[in-house]
Design brief:
Length: about 375
């Protein structure tokens, strides 16, 4: 009887079908079909409407760490060695590359569903979150550090009161050994880190430092991380099943042409004005933190940047600025743009110690 019970406990797995089903994929799995943990899509009330799974890919409970995956690989990782990576190596990438210095350029910056571990393991409308969706989760939810069944992590409480728990799963090394369990929560997004194609964006939750929730692109693609899936019926243009990731949506392509043609005919018979974004001159400073004075922390010094681009819309007269692959609405003249809010570490020169500071990140620039 003990052996039978042990077998049943070991054989518990997550089963999912679609994003809204409460039935296991295969009801015959396990002893009687009732021992499977079923992942569900939780509506947190986020502005995007994205729903988040209530457990990690490969988890056996709500609080289990689940499987680890290398970025863009659908099979469970046993280590984080480049030798086991599925899209080339650090000297030559074979997919998801925007710079020939890193490998074969295809200009794909978001994982296709064929390379998406969430979709590959759960199917249907499950996929990995983009970096923007991961950032939305962090920015829009209240976070509480909790421990369940000796597993610690953050509980994310959405605007509508619903919640999910992200365990601090740590990481595994080249030999498959675990590290930082119950300390660091390390999760992949589906977004490539374009400045360094060997990396990808991740959601990092960290209890022991001020970097909790920072999205950063220095996670090497060969690293083995957890995945928390999201559910959306409408997939993004790049996250498609095979094919070209450069905006081609297959059968949806003709719709854009048909929608643009007949709707412009009754505007007096003339040719509608052309909307273009033309380059204008700009200069500015890199984003920098400003910390409250009551923390006796000196604000970080703005560093000028020469790689920003600014544009004016010929039809509307609107302005925008682009820096580090992101675009921000702007106006002519001086702009001080508050682009983020995080907890972060700062150095206190008075006490000669590092501490946590929470305030805003500013990006200053001028459009001429």
């Amino acid at each position: 009887m003990k052996a039978k019970l042990l077998f049943l406990l070991i054989s518990i797995t997550i089963a999912v079908i679609g994003c809204k089903s409460n039935e296991p994929t295969n009801p015959n799995d396990g002893e009687n079909g009732n021992n499977q943990f079923i992942a569900e899509a939780i509506d947190l009330g986020l502005p995007s409407g994205i729903k988040w799974a209530n457990a990690n890919i490969g988890a056996a409970t709500l609080y289990d760490f689940g499987y680890y995956f290398q970025w863009g690989c659908v099979d469970k990782a046993e280590s984080e060695s480049w030798d086991s990576y599925c899209h080339g190596n650090k000297n030559h990438l074979t997919k998801y590359c925007t710079n020939s210095a890193y490998g074969s350029v295809d200009n794909r910056t978001t994982l296709q569903l064929i390379d998406d571990a969430a979709h590959g393991n759960w199917g249907d409308n499950w996929r990995m979150p983009t970096k923007e969706e991961a950032q939305e989760l962090w920015n829009k939810c209240t976070r509480i550090w909790e421990t369940h069944d000796n597993i610690s992590g953050y509980k994310f409480i959405g605007p509508n009161g619903n919640s999910i728990f992200l365990p601090s799963n740590g990481w595994i090394d080249d030999n498959g050994n675990s590290h930082s369990l119950n300390i660091d929560g390390l999760y992949w997004t589906s977004s490539l880190y374009e400045p360094n194609n060997n990396g990808a964006w991740g959601l990092i939750t960290r209890k022991t430092t001020g970097n909790a929730g920072v999205l950063y692109g220095t996670e090497n693609r060969n690293f083995a991380r957890a995945i928390r899936a999201v559910c959306s019926i409408k997939d993004s243009g790049e996250n498609t099943e095979g094919g070209d990731n450069n905006g081609d949506n297959g059968d949806n392509g003709d719709n854009s042409g048909n929608n643009n043609g007949d709707n412009s005919g009754d505007n007096g018979g003339g040719t509608p004005p052309t909307e273009e974004w033309v380059a204008v001159s700009a200069s500015g400073y890199l984003p920098y933190w400003y910390c409250p004075t009551d923390r006796t922390t000196v604000p970080s010094v703005p560093q000028s940047t020469s790689d920003i681009s600014a544009y004016r819309n010929t039809l509307t007269g609107a302005y925008k600025v682009k820096w580090a692959y992101e675009e921000y609405a702007a106006h002519k003249g001086y702009n001080k743009l508050k682009i983020d809010q995080e907890s972060h570490t700062t150095y206190n020169s008075i006490t000669d110690r590092w501490g946590v500071c929470t305030d805003y990140c500013y990006f200053e620039f001028t459009i001429y």
